[in-house]
Write a structure and sequence with these properties.
Elements lengths: L40 H18 L6 E6 L1 H13 L5 E5 L2 H13 L5 E5 L16 E5 L1 E2 L4 E2 L14 E4 L16 E5 L10 E6 L1 H9 L13 E2 L2 E2 L14 H16 L2 H22 L3 E3 L11 E6 L2 H4 L3 H17 L16 E4 L6 H25 L1
Parallel strand pairs: 2-3, 2-4, 4-7, 7-8
Antiparallel strand pairs: 1-9, 5-6, 8-9, 10-11, 12-13, 13-14
Helix pairs in contact: 1-5, 6-9, 8-9
């Protein structure tokens, strides 16, 4: 196959940190409050701007708390699990590696006894109807390593007794989240809007705040997990007073990304951009015999972390180890050309490709990538068959 002539203008298709927004430049960060305390008037104002713009852009209800917390999405999820779980049974809903990690934390680290794991293999959703909403329920909205998302929030009970705790890190800003159905929502700056690492976001509903103020976990809580003092919420966390020192350079970068998001149509504009990118991939998959989505049901296919599997007979006839090597070789061949970076499947996922299609990726770049995927597959298959 002839090597394609057109290349993506931006080769960044990593699933995190994701591509910077179109037109990004370090010059956009010239107003960062560098050399200032995050507790200074200027530093705190920058943090509050992130909170306020995030709330408005996402349509978060006025009585939901929004805070910046340490250690990225992982830190935000861990704060919720260690601070809120315990008084009720827990349903852990998972279908990929990060959801499985939360199961491990709850069962092996917190060592809660009354826990149900409701799981499905890569490519599928578990039976959401089996969730018991008298329990606390922990789940990801979008499986970053499987490319499988929940299609909507209809399965979440309005009259639930337990809390719904949602890791939304590769969904927020690209998918509609039904805030009244979500008691805890977490994400990180490096997903979807292309921010920098180490900063997490935590949203708490009034029901979650009530749990925090009425329940004290029986285990020790590290300082960075503590959200209450004397039985009351530490409200400053949700007013720009972070638990530990944030990067004001990264904060300025997040403000820049949020301003850009507002300029492209807000949340619906971001969703439209991500769905348009997914549509390009879907059109190609429909006409291409060697590849398919890892997500089996079209209604559950992610528009951000698009995960693909190789279904060519040559590939499916390989051993598991050879499949992994072949899939990596397809990704490496494109990366060596400087066309697409970081598109190999996640290490724990089935061998294949993972292409980030979030809102900061231009649809024209996704379209330009497609011929290179066909080229790399053809070249890699020929090379490996010859070597065998």
């Amino acid at each position: 196959m002839t090597k394609p002539n057109t290349r993506p203008a931006v080769p960044h298709f990593s699933s995190g940190p994701c591509a910077k927004r179109p037109g990004w430049s370090p010059e956009n960060l010239k107003d960062a409050a560098l050399g200032r305390s995050h507790r200074s008037k200027e530093g705190k104002a920058k943090l509050v701007e992130v909170l306020d713009r995030s709330r408005k852009l996402l349509g978060i209800p006025a009585d939901w708390r929004v805070g910046i917390v340490p250690a990225s999405d992982t830190g935000a999820v861990e704060m919720a699990l260690w601070s809120l779980l315990g008084p009720r049974p827990v349903d852990m809903v998972s279908w990929e590696s990060f959801g499985a990690e939360w199961v491990t934390d709850v069962t092996k680290q917190l060592k809660l006894k009354d826990v149900r794991s409701i799981a499905a293999p890569y490519g599928r959703l578990p039976d959401l109807k089996s969730v018991d909403w008298s329990h606390d329920v922990v789940f990801t909205w979008n499986g970053t390593t499987s490319g499988v998302r929940v299609p909507n929030g209809d399965w979440i009970a309005d009259d639930r007794q337990g809390l719904s705790i949602c890791d939304a890190t590769s969904a927020v800003f690209a998918m509609d989240l039904p805030w009244p159905k979500l008691d805890v929502v977490t994400w990180s700056w490096q997903k979807v809007l292309g921010g920098e690492a180490a900063h997490g976001m935590l949203v708490l509903s009034p029901r979650a705040v009530e749990r925090l103020e009425s329940y004290t976990p029986p285990w020790p809580l590290p300082k960075i997990f503590r959200m209450t003092k004397g039985g009351k919420l530490i409200d400053g966390i949700f007013k720009g007073e972070t638990i530990n020192t944030p990067s004001l350079l990264a904060t300025e970068d997040q403000i820049d990304a949020l301003r850009w998001a507002e300029g492209v149509g807000g949340l619906q504009g971001l969703i439209g951009r991500s769905e348009a990118n997914l549509a390009v991939i879907a059109d190609w998959v429909a006409r291409t015999p060697w590849v398919d989505f890892l997500a089996e049901d079209a209604a559950t296919r992610s528009c951000t972390s698009v995960c693909l599997k190789v279904v060519d007979p040559w590939f499916t006839g390989l051993s598991d180890a050879d499949k992994a090597a072949a899939a990596k070789a397809i990704a490496d061949r494109i990366e060596k050309e400087g066309v697409a970076l970081d598109i190999a499947a996640y290490r724990d996922a089935p061998p294949g490709l993972r292409i980030w299609c979030g809102a900061t990726v231009e649809t024209a770049d996704v379209a330009a990538l497609i011929p290179w995927l066909d080229w790399s597959f053809t070249e890699t298959r020929a090379a490996l068959q010859k070597a065998a």
